[in-house]
Structure formats: C-alpha cells, structure tokens
C-alpha cells in the first residue's frame, strides 16, 4: 500500500522538512497552511526556520533589504518574507508596464520588428526600473503612514507656507543615498506622466472624436491623482494600469475612490483644489492653529538644525559616499499595516499637498544641500535620463539591483529565487 505524501513527508527529519518547504515560492508556502491541520501546524511551528532557510536559498536584492532591513534572527517570520515578496511582485509588474510604455511612446518602437530589435534595451530598462520603482513605492508607503500620524496627533494641516523643506519627505529621503535620490528624482516625472496619460483620453482628440470614441468622462480632479499615489500606492497604480480600456480604467478609479472614501468623486467643480467638499484656507502668514507644526519646521529653517539633520553642507562628508543609509529596524521595519478607515482616508487626502509639491521640491533642495549636484540645472533632463536606462554598460542602477559594484560582475551567477520574480511578471499573493 502506497502511503500518502504527507506521511512520507512528515516521516523525514525536521531539518529536511524545513529545507524542502523553503525551496517553494512564498505564495505556495502560504497556501500549504490551507491544505490540512497537519500542514498548518507544521508551517506555524517552523515559521522562523522556514524563513531563515528561504533567505539562505534566495538572495534578497540590495535595494529591498536596505529599505526594509532584516529583523533579528529570532524575530524573522513569514510575514516579513511575504510582505517583501508582495512589494517586489508589485514593483516587477509596474516596471514591466512602464517599460512597455517607454518602448512604444518614448522610443517609438511600435511594430513587432522594431520591438524585437529593441529587446536587449527593453530588458535593461525594465531591470533598472525595478529598484527605482521600489524606492518610490517605499516613499509613498512611508509618507502615507507618517503624514496620517501627523494629522491625527496635531489635528492641523502641514501647510507649505510653514516650512522650507517638507519635514516628512526629508525624514524619508534621509534613507536614500545621493545616487539613488538623483535617479529616482529624474524618473519621478515619467511616473506622473504615465499615470496622468492613462487616466485621460488622447490629447489630440477633439470634442467630437472623444464623443465618437465614447470618451465622455470629465477630467479627474487633481487630488484624486494624489490620492491614488499616496493612499492607493504602487499596487493601485499597477491595478489601474493593467486595464486596457480607457473607460474601464476610469470606472476602476471611481470604484476605488468610492470604496476608499465612502463617497463618489465630485466632478461638478473642476476648478477646486480639494475633493469631498473639503477646503483649506492657506494664509501666507502662519496662524495660531499651525503651532503644532513648529517642532517640525524648526529643523528646516535654522542653519544649526540643518547641520544637525544630516542634510546640510556640513555633513556632506558622510553623505557623498556610495554606501546606502539603511533604515533602522525600529523605525521602518515591516509593520503590520491595516486598511485605512474612510474617516482617516478623508482626513489624509484633505491634508495632502498638490502633485507638484510632492517629492520634487524637497528632493531638489536636498540634492543641492548635500552637494550631490552643484546647480539645479545639473539635474539631467528627461532625454538624458532615458538614455541612461538603455546604456550597454554596468551602471549605478545595476549596482543597486545586483548589490555588487564590480564592473566585471556576471549577473548569470546570481542565485535564483527572488531573481525569478524580478525576471518575470511575479505573482500577486494573498494573505
């Protein structure tokens, strides 16, 4: 009589059981818990050994472990592994979509022959976009958490009139070294352009053409785009971008907005600044209600505080190196995030700045303060940034992706596992 697989498997020594399971991908490990009570008990009891063995078999990309540091060996669990896998999966999918858009809309490789000839450059673009998009995803995820905390603790908006450098953005960007900050800053406008083009009909269509094609939607209020980036994050951007039809994409945005804020988008006022009927009076002079922001603003306005914040010229000695400033495990470890309530989502959206005030002003100010660039004009233009993505040589983005600085590094020698995810489209994983 042939014994069932479970009996054969659980007859093995415990260390062999752990190693066998650790060779599976993360979604399959999590699904094993649903097979039977024996599997659920085995995965639960051996969660830490399985996680350690998984990391031994699969090399974590440098950019991922820099932003989400490994916990202590005794605290390592499948939640850390699964969250890291989910973030890499979303980043991989969005990088693929952006690469397709760059190939067709920027490099104008539209037919099959041109795309086949461009395939080596396309592979480099996608590989180099992955750490950039991952960094942007980390920025918005952390920004959402810190900004909501500020709103709930202080009960007043963080107005642009009350600071020189956004203190929340500066706190996050301190984790990025100069090269990473510059690369992400150069690509950030492309992500905004990609999202805005996905959510509006072709600009060369007139009113009649739009009507004939069924493009009868009004333009999205600007705060909705901010909400998609800051509250929905890269997962929502990816989900919307994968929808082929323009009308279906707009319906998906409306559905997401209604589900998140428990209120439909108000298209009646296209000139207002904030949705949901909420408005902010922005005075040029800080009012008494802005007092709770003073502890944040002092670190941005005084020269002494600038030097103490590791962002001023006095600290360029530590910042100009190529070493990544790693996040502390206590402040930016993988938190067990919960879904925002509609009340918190509305409060957060009301307080978010405009799209033009997110990332760009703070990043440029920090690049100049760190002396990563001599002048604002030294930031590479869009064309130069795109050219660097297709260079047939080892670049800083490759170093961040592979975690190796030697130009003679052979990518084929990298251990597989996480690389399998990054080389393919990945799998969306449920909890």
UniProtKB/TrEMBL annotation:
Stretches assigned to the F-box domain: 6-57
Highest taxon in the source lineage: Eukaryota
Record Pfam families: F-box
Extent of Polar residues compositional bias: 290-310
Region spans: Disordered: 279-334
InterPro entries: F-box-like_dom_sf, F-box_dom
Protein name in the entry: F-box domain-containing protein
């Amino acid at each position: 009589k042939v014994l069932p697989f479970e009996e054969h498997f659980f007859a093995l020594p415990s260390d062999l059981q752990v190693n066998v399971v650790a060779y599976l991908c993360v979604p399959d490990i999590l699904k094993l818990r649903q097979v039977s009570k024996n599997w659920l008990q085995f995965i639960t009891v051996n969660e830490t050994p399985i996680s350690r063995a998984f990391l031994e078999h699969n090399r974590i990309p440098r950019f991922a472990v820099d932003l989400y540091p490994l916990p202590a060996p005794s605290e390592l669990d499948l939640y850390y592994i699964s969250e890291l896998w989910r973030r890499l999966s979303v980043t991989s999918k969005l990088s693929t979509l952006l690469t397709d858009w760059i190939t067709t809309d920027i490099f104008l490789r539209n037919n099959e022959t041109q795309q086949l000839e461009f395939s080596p450059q396309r592979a480099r673009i996608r590989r180099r976009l992955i750490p950039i998009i991952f960094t942007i995803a980390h920025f918005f995820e952390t920004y959402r958490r810190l900004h909501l905390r500020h709103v709930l603790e202080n009960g007043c908006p963080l107005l642009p009139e009350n600071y020189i450098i956004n203190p929340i953005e500066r706190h996050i960007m301190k984790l990025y070294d100069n090269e990473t900050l510059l690369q992400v800053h150069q690509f950030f406008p492309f992500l905004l352009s990609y999202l805005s083009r996905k959510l509006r009909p072709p600009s060369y269509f007139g009113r009649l053409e739009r009507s004939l094609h069924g493009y009868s939607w009004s333009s999205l209020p600007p705060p909705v785009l901010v909400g998609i980036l800051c509250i929905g994050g890269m997962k929502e951007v990816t989900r919307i971008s994968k929808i082929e039809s323009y009308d279906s994409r707009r319906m998906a945005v409306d559905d997401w907005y209604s589900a998140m804020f428990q209120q439909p988008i108000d298209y009646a006022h296209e000139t207002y600044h904030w949705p949901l009927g909420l408005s902010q009076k922005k005075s040029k002079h800080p009012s008494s209600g802005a007092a709770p922001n003073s502890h944040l603003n002092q670190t941005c306005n005084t020269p002494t505080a600038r030097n103490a914040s590791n962002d001023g010229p006095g600290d360029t000695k530590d910042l100009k190196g190529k070493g990544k400033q790693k996040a502390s495990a206590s402040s930016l470890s993988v938190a067990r995030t919960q879904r925002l309530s509609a009340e918190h989502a509305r409060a957060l959206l009301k307080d978010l700045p405009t799209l033009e005030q997110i990332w760009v002003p703070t990043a440029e100010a920090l690049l100049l303060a760190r002396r990563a660039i001599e002048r604002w004009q030294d930031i590479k233009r869009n064309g130069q940034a795109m050219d660097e993505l297709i260079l047939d040589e080892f670049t800083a983005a490759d170093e961040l992706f592979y975690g190796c600085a030697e130009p003679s590094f052979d990518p084929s020698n990298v251990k597989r596992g996480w690389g399998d995810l990054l080389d393919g489209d990945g799998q969306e994983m449920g909890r």
